[in-house]
Amino acid sequence: PILQMAWREKISNKSQFILVSSKSLAKTVQFTRMRRGRVIIKRKPDIVHEYNMGMGGIDGTDQMLYTYLDERRNIKTWKKVIFNIFGRMVLNAYILYKLNTAENVLSRFEFTVSIVDDLALPWLMTRTNVEAEMERADGPRR
User: Fold this and answer.
1) Residue 17: what are its φ and ψ, rounded to 5°?
2) Secondary element (H or E) of residue 12
3) Quick one: DSSP state of residue 46?
């Protein structure tokens, strides 16, 4: 038998997930969540539970990557590819940084900002020097 279903995690989510499985049954699994100090019992389809239990590797990396990666429709395809590769490189660097740093670990956001700042510094210094030279040659701008 093949199970096909549509599922929405929250009522506020407009889009549904279309799920197909030849392994899962049409049943639900009960789980608990803590909300504001209270235990809340919820249910989700078995197919979703099985997917979440087996999620790892690429799925986990993609989930972490898309936290900060912006996929805009109006950006050129080659730029999407470059930003995706850059995002994966920064994520891999952050994972290695966390594994090799014992104290005062930066958050992923702070780590990403520090990398961008370090990469932009040579360009910023060149631009500042060029503007300073132009100002000396032309006199102060008004």
Assistant:
1) -95, 130
2) none
3) H
Measured in degrees and rounded to the nearest 5, phi and psi for residue 124 equal -65, -40
pTM check: above 0.85:
no
Greater pLDDT, 112 or 68: 112
Q: How many other C-beta atoms are found inside a 10 Å radius of the C-beta of residue 46?
A: 16
Using an 8 Å Cβ cutoff, are 6 and 26 in contact? no
Count of C-beta atoms within a 10 Å radius of residue 107: 9
Q: What is the mean pLDDT of the chain?
A: 82
Give dist(CA 31, CA 36) in Å, integer.
17
Q: Find the helix or strand (DSSP H, E) in which 42 lies.
A: strand 38-45
Q: How is the chain split into domains, by residue range?
A: 1-56, 68-141
Alpha carbon distance 47, 32 (integer Å): 17
Instruction: Report which secondary-structure segment, H or E, holds 80.
Output: helix 77-100
| Separation of alpha carbons 114 and 98, rounded Å | 15
* Burial label, 44 (beta-carbon count in 10 A; 0-12, 13-18, 19+): middle
127 or 73, which is more confident: 127
